[in-house]
Amino acid sequence: MEIETRAEAFEAALRRAGVRITRQRAALLRVLAAAEDHPDATQLHQRAMAAGAGVSLATVYRTLSALEAQGMIQKLEFEGEPARFEPADGHHHDHMIDVETGEVMEFVNERIERLQAEIAAEMGYEIVRHRLELYVRRRR
Amino acid sequence: MEIETRAEAFEAALRRAGVRITRQRAALLRVLAAAEDHPDATQLHQRAMAAGAGVSLATVYRTLSALEAQGMIQKLEFEGEPARFEPADGHHHDHMIDVETGEVMEFVNERIERLQAEIAAEMGYEIVRHRLELYVRRRR
DNA sequence: TTGCATGCAAACATTTTGCAAGTAG
DNA sequence: CTACTTGCAAAATGTTTGCATGCAA
Predict the structure, then answer these.
(1) Can you tell me which residues bind Fe cation (chains A, B) (predicted)?
(2) Would you list the DSSP string of B64-81?
(3) In this structure, is the CB of residue B21 within 7 Å of any atom belonging to strand C?
């Protein structure tokens, strides 16, 4: 049993799901797996191209949809920008966006999660998914 | 001192801000003030037209931008739909969306607000604005 | 070999904008 | 009067799709 890169894990998961691994998809998986930030479709396309993989933007979008459907990546839709994507690392988290620098940070808060569930429950609902974004500014 | 309708309050506020009250804007203010739901630009346009006011969709968008800039309305961007708008009633609230019916409900939770501020503060930030949406399903 | 995947360009949906004509103040 | 608004149509943006061709399994 060897160390598996995140890109390889992605591939294996896709194969298991019966999705074909094409040259383009493999390239995108590598780019996605390497992403430390939260790139949008155009950036992913550029990175794949820069890495020498010929991929069309249409395929980038189609691949992102497929990966999202498999639950392997998460689509983020922040205010006033194209959708961004991040590899789903399993544990849920929310986002904080520095409105001055555009930097995106992640955070988890169990109490907020619980409160949300309580609020929904009080009104007779259960949460399917939720979205919490804090648009912030560094304190002087 | 008389009872002032919400549309009239809107007009007065706009006038104070030095914004001209055109026939089109007055019509949109009335439509917005009367909205119990959370209509999008097209719906507002249709309602204004139905009310006999000739307004172009471009003007609807321009007016909505102006009203948002004045802080008189709030733009809501839920997942997978055009932006919706609601009159700003002064007190902040978040939204719960029934994924089955599309119904939008409002809620306020002081503890969640406080927790958000704490999280930001812990990381050295202060909150500029935030967005919290619960996508929910009715419990059987 | 065969059906899923791709590239391209065109279509799409929403929103924004340039410009000439209209109008509120 | 005159600067701000409008309507229209065109453009911009981000994303999706139809179709002929390509390729993974």
Answers:
(1) 92, 94, 113, 130
(2) HHHHHHTTSEEEE--TTS
(3) yes
